[in-house]
Design goal:
About 20% of the residues lie in helices and about 35% in strands. The chain starts with a helix and ends with a helix. The protein is an alpha+beta fold and about 350 residues long. The longest helix has 26 residues, at about 5-30. The strands form 4 sheets. The chain has a 7-stranded antiparallel sheet with strand order 5-4-1-2-3-7-6. Strands 8-9-10-13-12-11 form a 6-stranded antiparallel β-barrel. The protein contains 7 helices and 21 strands. Keywords: Hydrolase, Membrane, Protease, Serine protease, Transmembrane, Transmembrane helix. InterPro entries: PDZ (IPR001478), PDZ_6 (IPR041489), PDZ_sf (IPR036034), Peptidase_S1_PA (IPR009003), Peptidase_S1_PA_chymotrypsin (IPR043504), Peptidase_S1C (IPR001940). Belongs to the peptidase S1C family. It holds the Pfam family Trypsin_2.
Length: about 350
C-alpha cells in the first residue's frame, strides 16, 4: 500500500467515527436537532412536584349557591322623651336549595324581620319571601323569584363520619363570602325527635355565618351552619369557645324544609315521656313521664319497659321517639309495656310537640 493510501485511510477513519457519533447523539438526544443544546438534567434524578391538595373543584360547585342575607326590622327607641323608630339590620347567610328559588337559613337570622334581602354571588340583590320556620331546629325557608340560580349540590344520605374534612361557607362579619375548613368532631342524628344533636366541627364560624353551608370535600351539602358554642367566663360574661361549632345535619334540614314547603310548618307528635335502652334486652325503660301528657293520661309509668309501638318492636329510644315524632297529632297508637312481669297494652292519643315544651324540659 502506498504512502498516500495510508494517509488517506488515516484521515477517513476519524471522520467516519465522528459521523457515527453524531448520528447516535441526534437519535438519542433530540435537543441537538432543535439547536437547544444538551439538557444536563437528563442525567439527574426526576424531581417532579407532587400535585397540590386543593378543594377548588368542590367549592366551584358549592360556593356560588351560598348567599348573603340581610334582614331589616323597624324597632322603637326606648330613649327618655323620645320615641322614634329606627332600622336594624341583621346579617346572615343562606343556601339555595332548588332551581325554583327555595333557600334555607337559620330562623334567628330573619326573626321579626320586616324585609329580607338576598345577595347572590353574581351580584344580584333580591327580596325574599318567608315561607315558614321551625323554632325547634332554628331553621327557616325563604323563596326568591329569579332565573339561573346556582343550586347547592345535595345527596340523599351524606353518610358523614367523624374525621371527614368539611368547609363552612358564609359571610362572616359582612366581609364577603369566606371559606373556613376543619373536620367533623361529632355527627348529629337526623330524626325529628332529636332537637339539639347537631354536627360538631372545628371549622370557624363567626357572626354572619349562621344559615350558611357546611360542605364535604366533594362540595356536597352536609349541614346548615348554626352557631358556635358559648359559655360563661369567670365574670359571668358570655364568651365563645374556639373550635366548637355546630350545624344542623343536612338530612334533618331537608326534611324540615320539605315539610314547611308542603304544610307551612313542621308538625311533630309527642307522648310526653323519655326512656333509655336496656343493655342486651328488648325495649326501653321509661325514666320520666310529663304530668298531664298523653302518656300520663294513658297510664304509662316510670320504670315501665316499652316493648312495642303500634306492633313495631322497640329497638332504641332514638328510633322510637322518631317514629312518634313523625306520627300525626290526634292519631291513636298502641303501646305494649312490661310492668312487674305483666304485659300491658294501652292506647294513647298523640299530642303535638310545641317549642315551649322543649324549653321547659
Amino acid at each position: 500500500m502506498s504512502l498516500f493510501s495510508r494517509i488517506l485511510i488515516a484521515l477517513i477513519k476519524p471522520i467516519m467515527l465522528g459521523i457515527v457519533v453524531a448520528v447516535i447523539l441526534l437519535v438519542f438526544f433530540p435537543e441537538f436537532r432543535q439547536g437547544s443544546g444538551l439538557n444536563l438534567n437528563f442525567f439527574k434524578p426526576n424531581q417532579s412536584i407532587p400535585p397540590r391538595i386543593s378543594y377548588y373543584d368542590a367549592l366551584e360547585q358549592s360556593a356560588p349557591a351560598v348567599v348573603n342575607i340581610y334582614s331589616i326590622s323597624l324597632e322603637n327607641s326606648n330613649r327618655i322623651f323620645r320615641n322614634r323608630a329606627y332600622e336594624r339590620t341583621s346579617l346572615g347567610s343562606g343556601v339555595i336549595m332548588s332551581e325554583d328559588g327555595y333557600l334555607m337559613t337559620c330562623y334567628h337570622v330573619i326573626k321579626n324581620a320586616d324585609s329580607i334581602y338576598v345577595a347572590l354571588q353574581d351580584s344580584r340583590l333580591l327580596q325574599a319571601q318567608l315561607i315558614g320556620f321551625d323554632e325547634i331546629t332554628d331553621l327557616a325557608v325563604l323563596k326568591v323569584f329569579a332565573e339561573d340560580l346556582h343550586v347547592m349540590p345535595q345527596m340523599e344520605e351524606p353518610d358523614l363520619r367523624v374525621g371527614d374534612v368539611v368547609m363552612a361557607i358564609g359571610n362572616p362579619l359582612d366581609l364577603g363570602q369566606t371559606i373556613t375548613s376543619g373536620i367533623v368532631s361529632r355527627t348529629g342524628r337526623n330524626g325529628f325527635s332529636n332537637f339539639f344533636d347537631f354536627v360538631q366541627t372545628d371549622a370557624v364560624l363567626n357572626q354572619g355565618n349562621s344559615g350558611g353551608a357546611l360542605v364535604d370535600s366533594n362540595g356536597y351539602l352536609v349541614g346548615i351552619t348554626n352557631a358556635n358554642f358559648k359559655t360563661l367566663d369567670n365574670r359571668r360574661r358570655v364568651t365563645s369557645v374556639d373550635g366548637v361549632n355546630f350545624a344542623v345535619p343536612y338530612t334533618l334540614a331537608r326534611r324540615v324544609m320539605d315539610e314547611i314547603i308542603t304544610n307551612g310548618k313542621v308538625t311533630r307528635g309527642q307522648l310526653g315521656f323519655s326512656g333509655k335502652e336496656i343493655g342486651g334486652a328488648q325495649g326501653i325503660v321509661v325514666d320520666s313521664v310529663m304530668t298531664d301528657s298523653p302518656a300520663d293520661q294513658a297510664g304509662l309509668q316510670v320504670n315501665d319497659v316499652l316493648l312495642s309501638v303500634n306492633g313495631v318492636e322497640v329497638e332504641s329510644a332514638a328510633k322510637t321517639l322518631d317514629m312518634i315524632a313523625e306520627t300525626q297529632p290526634g292519631s291513636e297508637i298502641t303501646l305494649v309495656v312490661s310492668r312487674n312481669d305483666r304485659t300491658i297494652s294501652m292506647v294513647v292519643v298523640v299530642g303535638e310537640l310545641k317549642p315551649q315544651m322543649i324549653a321547659r324540659g
